[in-house]
Give the backbone structure.
Amino acid sequence: ADIDGDGDPDALATSQTDRTVVVYENIPPIPAEVLGAGCAGLSLSGNPMRLNSSWDLQLGSVAATSPFGVFFVGGAALEPGLPLTATCTAYTTADLGFFLQPVVAGASTWSLAVPNDPSLVGAQLTVQGTAASADPTAWNGIAISNGLRGTVGQ
């Protein structure tokens, strides 16, 4: 329950001996960590990953000529990153798959459902997005976003 109204779930504990109730605030959600920078103007942002919720990701500044964005998901980050060109770098292992999503009004969005399983707290995923681009700084006609590392919180 959200006892204090801050949007984060809180825990209650009661004492059987003295009839007191104690409120414990849970740790607030862990913001997604930005890995590096995108190239050709592409950016990736997302909300914190929480149990029983969804991790909502958005590719921004997608070229109008790009029909879709591609979200690459990995179990680990490439640190400090794998340079693809002077301005484009890969930040995810991309070993867990990729997902194509349509571009609407210069953005592409994708959501990952996070189950209500406490054993997932602390688990991490990395994501990076790409989209077609005519920008000369793009990698072979592909704009590449910054990476994000999400950590599952409560």
User: Anything to note?
Assistant: The mean pLDDT is 91. The longest strand covers residues 142-151. Residues 7 and 36 are 29 Å apart (CA to CA).
